[in-house]
Write the structure tokens for this entry.
Amino acid sequence: MDKNGNKSLNLLTATLSGFSLGAVIMLMLLSDGGNEDTYMMIFAGGMTLAAAMLFSMIRLVIEAFILPHNAKKKTAERALGKDGIQILRKDETARLAYKGIYALIDGKLAKSEEYLQQALSRSDLRQNQCFCVEWLIRVYDAMENDAQLMWCYRKAVEYSPDNAEAQSRLGHAYFADGQLDRAMYCFEQALRYDPNNGYSYFSIAKIQLIRGQDKSAFETLQKLVKINENHPLCHAELADYYAMQGDRKMAEEEVKKAQLCGIKEPEELNKRINAMLSFHETEFSGGDLPTMFYRKIEKPNGGSEVHSGGRNAIGDSGEVKG
């Protein structure tokens, strides 16, 4: 139960307790034999109790229903923009989108999906189509529906192919699904429209390393360093690169840089790099570390075993989870 629900329950409990206490007092007074003063006291007490109960019940209704409803309503209206109320009065598509957003806030995901899909089907303007898709992404994310999320990512690129963030997001989804060719294309498109899109550089380097194109990956990461020398994922990937080559000094240096830049889960990075370096430094080690530890063979149909795991393979910060 949420905070508002707890408050409402406490208020209702207090109201019922007050009613019970008042009833007990009335019974005690009635048992006194009954005289005019007693009945006046009972009447006055009853009226006071009734007024208190009425106030409590009104407050209960306001806190439990009206205030939460108004808050959700305002949030949904704000989502439509500063002219949201005026748009709602004139545009049926906007009203459908509003209902979908309100239903999402209210936790009614199936209803939200229905309204937003209707709004999307009625939308002719690119801006409105992208708006509906972005809210559908939130719905399907809450539903944990990976297939529909992929559909939304594709739709976002279809409606707005020059949007670097949409291209990069679709690339992440393809990468997580092991479709590396498609992922590479999306990241390249993202860089076409935003040459400074750091995460696309990082992702391209990741794919190149997975495919054994170490030299190309290193060059890609160096480009990213020039654009943003404080990119934590870039330094983490460079640490991987140097660890694969058995270069402890450079690997540890890149780990420190990644930590200074605020890499998430620094202990995990330390463990990974130390494991790779230890592998190289073990005398009986005769295997190919990049292949055994890091790379998988890409499947002919474009899929790959690497980083499979659906939408959760990439974290909120854009960090690829191992």
